[in-house]
Specification:
Strand order of the largest sheet: 3-2-1-4-5-7-6-8
Shape: globular
Number of strands: 8
CATH class: Alpha Beta
Number of domains: 1
Strand content: 15-25%
Distance between the termini: 39 Å
CATH topology: Rossmann fold
CATH architecture: 3-Layer(aba) Sandwich
Length: about 260
Amino acid sequence: MNRASLDKRPDEVATMFDDVAPKYDVVNDVLSMGQTRRWRRVVVEAMDATAGQRVLDLAAGTGTSSEPYADAGIDVIACDFSLGMLKVGKRRRPDIDFIAGDATNLPFADNTFDASTISFGLRNVNEPKKALAEMLRVTKPGGKLVIAEFSQPVVPLWRTMYTEYLMRALPAIAVKVSSNPDAYVYLAESIRAWPDQDHLAAWLQESGWEKVTYRNLSGGIVAVHRAHKPLESTPGGGAASIAAHTGPVARLRRNITRTPR
């Protein structure tokens, strides 16, 4: 069985997700007690994308997060570095473009997307600030970024209970429902080590994003951050779009506002 370390070497993390790809979505539903679906709906609402827009869904995995955009007539690109996850997604939704790519070196031109999003994937990147800068680069001026990521419960008692679930109950459940339970030990450890809501908001500002806000879900277990790319035009891009690819999978703290729950 494969699991990544908290060093988050890209090859280790990609291999781990390749292993869990076939049952990834089902196991997520079980371990989150169905909350994953609700959290993803909040992301779609926050994106507020419209038909004809081009959206980058980074760390899209099997494409579950990309489906609502495709169904609404939005030109969504599902990008991930796990070929196993992308292949599962392409078999299920051949109408969605799945592209292999590294979050810290995206295979897209500057100013390609009207909006970008990443759900539960930034935590798995070994250089998250670089990924934030890359999403800024490929998003058009004025475009929106929405991030959903596990965070820190805001009520101390709830935080203690949640930590106990992460470190004790979740790995025990994973043994029964996952073909690679060690991957979910990594999941628990990576969530526990991840910075809180305000730290992520600060990272967004440091990476060049503005109008940063966040909303806590499930008492802060998850936070949804929103930000915009400044309107000033940047060199490069708008006309050049996505690098051509063939086949089903291309190989390849200031001004921070907390919105009410």
